[in-house]
């Protein structure tokens, strides 16, 4: 019956066997299958894996692992294919070359399929794996090249950049740069076949399976392959040699002759359109004969697409436009130019960076017959460009605006250079450019800050310098044939721009913006080298290259645009003039002199403030003897020779004009007059400068004016060197000393600081500031100034009569920073610190501002390696003063906060500099006063029996506190300091390890803080000041003490010692610390067991944490004491210990309890006083007054 257990099959047939099937095929004469399930003919499927049985000769060529990976590459799941191609790359890298070579016959068709996969990750991984295969097989790849190369080039133009980059890297790994043209030449027909089939035959349906791929993915793949194919043709042409290109022209002619090909120029996808125009550029560059033959189609396709402003399409479109030489197939006036004007009027539609640099090369490529009449064409062209300059997008973007301006000026400059002959038509073009384009543009810029801040003024100046060189006005210029033309051009320009300037300036209601614009333009013309080049759009060169830089075999390729006669922008910048600025023409300085005279007339006759400001702006850039002589001559004519003229016209103008304007009482804005004074001083010697500034200092001017003059004198090294004698002279020094006395009187009074005093403080601080490196100039005045300040601050140190001393304090820091070596400076700094560390509501100081100053000063003080901390110095005095404040001055919460903040800032500043020495002064000198253990009896009566200390009446005064006890203030301050410097062992400022004084004292300060917290708790945070104190500690993170900053074991020992010594509240502090941290401390029980209250308190605290054996020991000692009591023994302590043990569930024999109770009953009869029989309660516990 065993047959019943056999496996049955449907129909009783035998299961299939692939091995048997292979044997049957061989036996019956069948061909050995090359691939499983298919014949050996070429198939479009991916089942390329050799059979496992029956074909040993083929099976040996491919490793089993490779077969498995190749099978996975045919799966539909993208993740499986991705993992498979990654594994394939790893295997190619790890396996021997012979094993990898076995895969080559099957790799070509696999590569052609997966290199165009929908998944970009698979495409990238395919190229990375291909690189590993190439590196392994090297020359063995040659037989497969023709089948691989078409898709290889296609992959190098993949729209997914990582995939394209990986394909290029694999190509470079296979062929050196010298071998690449040879390899492509070998496969050029096959490559073009692949690309041409995609461009002319394939569709979205034929490239992907409609049943398994969505329509969206099919379309995406089709667009991607179209783009890659168009770019592939461009890449192929750029890499092939000229002979190979010529060999392909017939095939390319077929491609270009197709109607379908030209439709790609109007494709709905920008990527395809962009790739199409890039290919057209390559055709124009590498196959000019073919382009000429197809010009009828190519020219309209390119020239009529210039309005395509898509960011992907526009650059290649304009590159193609610049390659087109034939305009006969397009009606430029009806088709090309209208589209060009529309694009220019809209500022390139946001694509100015890509479009406008091509405009000047476009002008050079336009045929003469297309632009006739030239005047009308250029007028329309430049008007459209100017309209684009004020378009919505250009106005909103400074970069777009700058590019348009640069292109506009570049085109103006080019057109001028192309029309330098004496012919009438060219003369009209030059006149039109000057009168209708350039000058209106500059006039618009005069009142438009957007244009003023751009590159317009600089580029116009460059153009004028170029014209001057053509006119031979520069020493290094060569004599040109058209010199006369440029001379007339310059004269025409300066004549017209002068009229424009005069029209704006010679107006009583002149627009201030226009005046500032004129001054800005003239300044740039005067000093073009000072222009911020970030705002200038520079072109690297006027030469246009549309081929690779290394293509040296084509020196005369069409498409190059060269302006041989025009220097580039970078060349013009390097041209340095040797006379009065970069512009050499006399017209320039004549314009400035004429404008300065007009300003002086309006100021003298109509007291025009706007013209005075404009004159100041002119003199900043043109402080030359010629300009000052012109102004003085006008004064002479006005005074008809009655005024004595100085030999130096600048000095005469300063004395007769500038100083008079400066002293006018109704004038509030004097900065521009001060600028005129220094413009005049630039033409004076140092002696004259010192004499004039001393005279101005003694004129009794307002301090704000002296401040403006001082700031200007310190504004630069050149000016500072000229004014140094004045800055360190006695005239200014005496004035400053008098000012200090005046400010000290103001600071010590209760009056608030005025704007005048604010200028005064700023003036003194500026003069002694290290920023200008001139503090040494008045160093001999510092001791007197410090002495005066110290006396004033000492008088106002009392809180009751302190005034608004903040300006005084700020200035004090400035002085002390300059003279740290003076002992008087340290005393002054101590006084300021004392004011800083007190309540600001009384001192009228801004705590944060003053502390910032103090920290800044401390850093400069203590980082000085020459500074020595010594007894009697600043730091030592601060420590003593802080200790005095803590122990003798009752502080409220606000006062404590201010004091702690000041000390904390001081500690933070010196922490890494003078850590050890400073803390030895600041902390070790603090001694805690004998703080009362307050109401011991009620305290211990509620928790610890056996202590009866009669309290004094004074202890109850703590219930009515209005100021913090010294102990609380001291604990808070030291706790805050401990937070700032938590480490016991620190590094000194030299980086060496040193033992801090906190090593010996931090446990004491930590325990004192816990004691203070326990005090607040036992007071039930009453009155309100105690609650506020506890909230303050909580805000500082000290509500649980400093447990995280000190070792628990050591702190426990410290608390234990204090409890044994003092008991009472210290015992409660120890109790709380043990319970909070779950600790245990077993001391010597026999030493603790005694009559001292402190020891009893400690024993009661420790009892719950003792072991059972220790508790039994305590019971034995207490029982012995009770049973064997003597007359003078403190039997209460024995009872208290026994009670603690019983409360802790200690086992006690019944006989012992009975003996103890018998002893107590004996006391009941013989010691009535112990039980308070016949005693007044007020004689025992509290004073009589409290009972009432």
TrEMBL record:
Listed EC numbers: 2.3.2.27
Molecular-function annotations in GO: ribosomal large subunit binding; ubiquitin protein ligase activity; zinc ion binding
Comp. bias intervals (Basic and acidic residues): 547-563
SUPFAM superfamilies for this protein: ARM repeat
Family matches, as Gene3D superfamilies: Leucine-rich Repeat Variant
Quaternary context: Component of the ribosome quality control complex (RQC).
Family according to the record: Belongs to the LTN1 family.
Name of the protein this chain belongs to: E3 ubiquitin-protein ligase listerin
Taxonomic source organism: Gouania willdenowi (Blunt-snouted clingfish)
High-level lineage: Eukaryota, Metazoa, Chordata, Craniata, Vertebrata
């Amino acid at each position: 019956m065993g047959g019943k257990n056999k496996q049955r099959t449907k129909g009783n047939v035998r299961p299939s066997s692939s091995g048997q099937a292979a044997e049957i095929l061989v036996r019956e004469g069948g061909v050995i299958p090359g691939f499983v399930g298919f014949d050996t003919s070429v198939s479009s499927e991916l089942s390329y894996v050799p059979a496992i049985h029956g074909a040993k000769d083929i099976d040996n060529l491919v490793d089993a692992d490779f077969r498995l990976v190749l099978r996975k590459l045919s799966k539909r799941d993208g993740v499986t294919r991705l993992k498979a191609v990654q594994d394939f790359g790893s295997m190619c890298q790890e396996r021997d070359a012979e094993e990898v070579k076995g895969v080559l016959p099957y790799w070509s068709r696999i590569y052609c399929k997966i290199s165009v996969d929908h998944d970009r990750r698979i495409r990238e991984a395919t190229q990375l794996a291909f690189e590993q295969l190439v590196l392994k097989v090297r020359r063995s790849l040659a037989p497969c090249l023709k089948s691989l190369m078409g898709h290889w080039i296609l992959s190098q133009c993949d729209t997914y950049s990582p995939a394209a980059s990986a394909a290029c890297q694999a190509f470079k790994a296979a062929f050196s740069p010298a071998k690449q043209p040879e390899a492509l030449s070998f496969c050029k027909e096959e490559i073009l076949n692949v690309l041409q089939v995609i461009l002319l035959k394939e569709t979205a349906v034929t490239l992907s399976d409609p049943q398994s791929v969505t329509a969206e993915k099919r379309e995406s793949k089709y667009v991607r392959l179209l783009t890659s194919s168009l770019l592939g043709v461009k890449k192929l042409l750029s890499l092939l040699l000229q002979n190979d290109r010529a060999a392909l022209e017939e095939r390319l002619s077929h491609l270009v002759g197709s109607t379908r090909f030209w439709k790609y120029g109007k494709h709905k996808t920008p990527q395809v359109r962009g790739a199409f125009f890039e290919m057209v550029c390559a055709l124009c560059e590498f196959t000019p004969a073919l382009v000429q033959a197809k010009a009828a189609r190519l020219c309209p396709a390119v020239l009529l697409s210039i309005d395509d402003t898509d960011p992907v399409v526009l650059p290649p479109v304009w590159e193609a436009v610049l390659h087109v030489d034939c305009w006969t197939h397009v009606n430029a006036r009806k088709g090309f130019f209208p589209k060009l004007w529309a694009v220019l009027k809209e500022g390139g539609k946001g694509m100015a960076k890509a479009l406008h640099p091509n405009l000047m090369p476009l002008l050079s490529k336009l045929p003469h017959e297309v632009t006739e009449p030239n005047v009308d064409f250029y007028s329309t062209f430049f008007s459209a460009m100017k309209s684009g300059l004020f378009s919505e997008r250009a106005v909103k973007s400074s970069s777009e605006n700058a590019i348009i301006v640069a292109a506009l000026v570049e085109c103006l400059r080019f057109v001028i250079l192309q029309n330098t002959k004496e012919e009438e038509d060219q003369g009209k073009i030059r006149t039109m450019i000057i009168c209708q384009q350039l000058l209106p543009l500059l006039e618009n810029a005069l009142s438009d800050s957007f244009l003023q801040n751009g590159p317009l003024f600089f580029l116009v100046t460059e153009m004028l310098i170029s014209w001057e060189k053509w006119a031979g006005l520069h020493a290094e210029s060569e004599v040109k044939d058209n010199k006369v033309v440029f001379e007339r051009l310059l004269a025409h320009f300066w004549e017209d721009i002068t009229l424009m300037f005069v029209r704006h300036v010679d107006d009583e209601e002149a627009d201030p913006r226009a005046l500032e614009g004129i001054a800005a333009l003239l300044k740039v013309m005067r000093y073009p080298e000072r222009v911020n080049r970030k705002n200038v759009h520079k072109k690297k060169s006027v030469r246009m290259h549309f081929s690779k830089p290394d293509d040296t075999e084509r020196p005369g390729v069409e498409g190059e645009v060269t302006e041989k006669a025009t220097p580039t922008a970078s060349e013009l910048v390097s041209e340095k003039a040797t006379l009065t600025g970069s512009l050499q023409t006399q017209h320039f300085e004549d314009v400035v002199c004429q404008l300065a005279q007009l300003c002086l007339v309006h100021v003298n006759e109509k007291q025009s403030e706007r013209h005075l400001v404009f004159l100041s702006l002119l003199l900043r850039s043109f402080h030359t003897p010629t300009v000052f002589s012109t102004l003085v001559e006008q004064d002479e004519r006005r005074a008809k020779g009655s005024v004595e003229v100085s030999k130096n016209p600048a000095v005469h103008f300063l004395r007769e004009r500038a100083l008079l304007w400066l002293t006018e009482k109704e004038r509030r804005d004097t900065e521009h007059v001060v600028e005129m004074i220094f413009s005049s001083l630039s033409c004076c010697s140092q002696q004259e400068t010192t004499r004039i500034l001393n005279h101005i200092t003694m004129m009794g001017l307002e301090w704000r004016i002296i401040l403006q003059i001082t700031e200007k004198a310190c504004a630069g090294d050149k000016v500072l060197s000229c004014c140094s004698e004045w800055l360190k002279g006695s005239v200014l020094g005496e004035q400053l000393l008098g000012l200090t006395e005046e400010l000290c009187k103001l600071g010590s009074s209760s009056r608030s600081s005025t704007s005048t005093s604010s200028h005064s403080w700023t003036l003194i601080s500026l003069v002694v500031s290290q920023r200008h490196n001139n503090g040494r100039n008045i160093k001999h005045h510092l001791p007197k100034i410090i002495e005066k300040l110290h006396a004033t601050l000492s008088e106002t140190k009392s809180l009751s009569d302190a005034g608004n001393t903040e300006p005084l304090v700020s200035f004090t820091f400035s002085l002390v920073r300059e003279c740290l070596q003076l002992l008087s400076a340290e005393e002054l700094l101590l006084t300021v610190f004392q004011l800083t560390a007190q309540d600001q509501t009384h001192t009228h100081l801004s705590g944060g501002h003053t502390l910032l100053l103090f920290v800044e000063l401390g850093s400069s003080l203590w980082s000085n390696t020459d500074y020595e901390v010594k007894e009697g110095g600043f730091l030592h005095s601060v420590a003593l003063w802080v200790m005095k404040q803590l122990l003798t001055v009752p502080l409220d919460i606000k006062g404590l906060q201010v004091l702690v903040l000041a000390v904390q800032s001081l500690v933070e500043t010196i922490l890494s500099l003078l850590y050890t020495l400073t803390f030895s002064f600041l902390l070790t000198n603090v001694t805690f006063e004998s703080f009362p253990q307050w109401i011991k009896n009620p305290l211990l009566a509620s928790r610890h029996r056996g202590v009866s200390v009669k309290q004094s009446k004074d202890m109850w005064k703590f219930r009515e506190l209005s100021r913090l006890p010294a102990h609380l203030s001291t604990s808070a301050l030291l706790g805050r300091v401990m937070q700032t410097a938590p480490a016991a062992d620190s590094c000194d400022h030299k980086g060496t390890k040193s033992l801090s004084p906190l090593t010996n004292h931090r446990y004491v300060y930590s325990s004192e803080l816990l004691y203070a917290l326990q005090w607040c708790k036992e007071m039930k945070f009453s009155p309100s000041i105690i609650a506020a104190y506890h909230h303050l500690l909580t805000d500082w993170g000290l509500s649980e003490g400093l447990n995280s900053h000190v070792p628990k074991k050591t702190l426990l020992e410290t608390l234990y010692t204090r409890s044994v010594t003092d008991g009472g509240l210290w015992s409660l502090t120890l109790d709380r610390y043990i319970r909070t941290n779950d600790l245990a401390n077993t001391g010597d029980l026999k030493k603790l067991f005694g009559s001292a209250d402190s020891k009893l308190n400690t024993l009661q605290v420790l009892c719950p944490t003792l072991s059972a054996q220790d508790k039994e020991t305590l019971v034995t000692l207490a029982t012995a004491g009770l049973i064997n009591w003597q007359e003078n023994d403190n039997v209460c302590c024995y009872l208290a210990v026994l009670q603690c043990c019983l409360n802790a569930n200690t086992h006690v024999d019944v006989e012992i309890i009975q003996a103890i109770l018998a002893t107590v009953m004996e006391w009941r009869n013989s010691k009535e006083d112990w039980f308070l029989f016949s005693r007044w309660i007020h004689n025992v516990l509290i004073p009589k007054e409290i009972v009432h």
